[in-house]
Amino acid sequence: MTVDIVVLGAGPAGLAAALFLASDGHRVTVFDRDSAEPEAGDRPGVSQFRQPHVLLPRGLAVLERQLPEVVATVESGGGRRWNLLAGARAAPHHRYEALAVRRPVLEGALVEAAARRPNIEIRRGVGVRTLRTGRPGAGGVPHVNAVVTESGETVRATLVVDAGGDDSPVSTLIGGLHSVGRRLALRADAGFDFHSRYFHAAGGRLPPQPAWPLQHHDSISTLALPSGDGTWSLTLVVSRRDRVMRSLYEEHVWDRVAALFPDLREWVAYGEPVTGVLQAAGPVTRRRRSIAGGHPPATGLVSVGDAWATTNPAFCQGMSMAFVQAELLREAVRAHDAPDKLVLGYEEAAHRALGPFYDTLAFWEHNRLGDIYARIHGRRFYDSPTWAVAKALDAAKPADPEVLTAMADMGSMLVPPGEVLAREGLVGRALALAEEAPTSTLAREEVLTAISR
After folding, report:
1. What is each CA distance from 453 to 193, 376, 377, in whole angstroms?
2. What pLDDT is stored for residue 46 in this prediction?
3. For the purposes of burial, counting CB atoms within 10 Å of the CB of 118, is it exposed (0-12), middle (13-18) or buried (19 or more)?
4. Closest Cα partner for 117 from 5, 36, 42?
5. Average pLDDT of the chain, as a whole number
6. CB 169 within 8 A of CB 150
7. Are 79 and 99 spatial neighbours (Cβ–Cβ below 8 Å)?
8. Which neighbouring-strand residues pair with 278?
9. What does the alpha-carbon distance between residue 319 and residue 47 come to, in Å, rounded to a whole number?
């Protein structure tokens, strides 16, 4: 059965969903409020367009399975395969292979693939004013059956896919039916800020890879990632409430602070910067709940990508989550004709596959922000036993291959956190190693001194 599907948003999440569904013969129209093409190198409507992007092993496996031609196009356009554990092992397992890519390259490859599908139309610079609902379905649940563009055009659809990102207007367009569920106890603006610079060396050579790309220090996290075209990115991640860190946008301040961290120092010295400091505000980790009491607030409407949930960009899981969701949506559309069963089937599958990773990131962000906030005010942050375990695992991974593998399994989204933590002896070994090992984190006072110079 061929149906008409409307996708709201032409980012990686929306384009992947459109391509997966179109592969089954469905007619798909993609609307995007932003008029800019990805080849332009910037999209004003996407705050993180120029920030580092990585497709983790879980997401790369989906793309290779569903759209191998897109992977080939990305690699020919400068995307780089790299193994998350290459800096720690002589021969790391293939399962930890990721794809580092600039977002314009990835979106361009997806757009190119869509252009070869006669049943996909991408309409840029077209916003949606409202969603229309028709006759209620089972249990009186409203059914979304059309979108109305800002120009007044009504486009009917059997299914609407919200891929509008963190600031998607869909929840307000249908009067809050797509309700926002649990939020962090902290204020909505208590997220993280990202300060990134790109570097390049002669011949496109990359510096030696660290044992793990993401390191957490006192008040700052550092992220070192390869990128496309022989470049790499270095990012300083700070709490948005940490006002003294706001001067990191100045290049000379960023340089002084980055040079303090052993994991970044070699990467900074290895090449030359090719950008200034690129700032971005990371979204607060939150989940938009669309199922309450076993019933969807509306049928004919599902969400993917950041419209489904936002996660901390430092862990690079968002794009991979979006591709997993797109594949699960394709399976749900194949399996269910009834609108309510389609929505419920998709949401249950997405929560089962991704909920544990989202919950882990939400837990980490809540505690990390609380820890930093306490340090800003010279107070002690009272650890919960679970947070103590999380910090021990992070501290122990350089010293123990099994702990590092466990962190890689979780970080790559290959094994749910609960299964990893249940491995015999893992938590006890991490706690013992963390207690014995000398601290490798940089003290907040050292960073403040470098900033104030």
Report:
1. 22, 19, 21
2. 55
3. exposed
4. 5
5. 87
6. no
7. yes
8. 196
9. 15
Query: By C-alpha distance, which of 212, 132, 196, 140 is closest to 170?
Result: 132
pLDDT-based confidence at residue 316 (cuts at 50, 70, 90): very high
Say yes or no to pLDDT of 322 above 90.
yes
Distance, in Å, from the CA atom of 353 to the CA atom of 363, rounded to the nearest integer, reads: 17
pLDDT at 192 over 50: yes
Measured CA to CA, the distance from residue 323 to residue 306 in angstroms comes to 11
Q: Is the pLDDT of residue 115 over 50?
A: yes
CA dihedral 301, 110, 280, 46 (to 10 degrees): -60
In terms of DSSP H, where are the helices of 5-48? 12-22
Record the tokens describing residue 367, joined without a space: 């505690």
Could you write out the DSSP letters of every residue in 78-111? Answer: T-EEEETTTTT-SS--GGGEEEE--HHHHHHHHH
Annotate 349-398 with DSSP letters as a single string.
HHHHHHHHHHHHHHHHHHHHHHHHHHHHTT------HHHHHHHHHHHHTT
Distance CA 26, CA 14 (A): 15
Angle at which helices 385-396 and 426-436 cross, to 10°: 70
Give the CA radius of gyration of the chain.
22
More confident residue, 143 or 36: 143
* 354 token code pair: 């991704």
**Both tokens of residue 427?**
């938590």
**CA dist., res. 326 & res. 322, Å (int):** 6
3-state SS, residue 220: strand
Which range of 160-169, 311-320, 378-387 scores highest in mean pLDDT? It is: 311-320
Place of tokens 């910090």: 391
Question: Out of 19-23, 281-285, 351-355, which region has the weakest mean confidence (pLDDT)?
Answer: 281-285
- Mean pLDDT in residue range 98-110: 91
Q: Are 126 and 149 in contact (CB under 8 A)?
A: yes
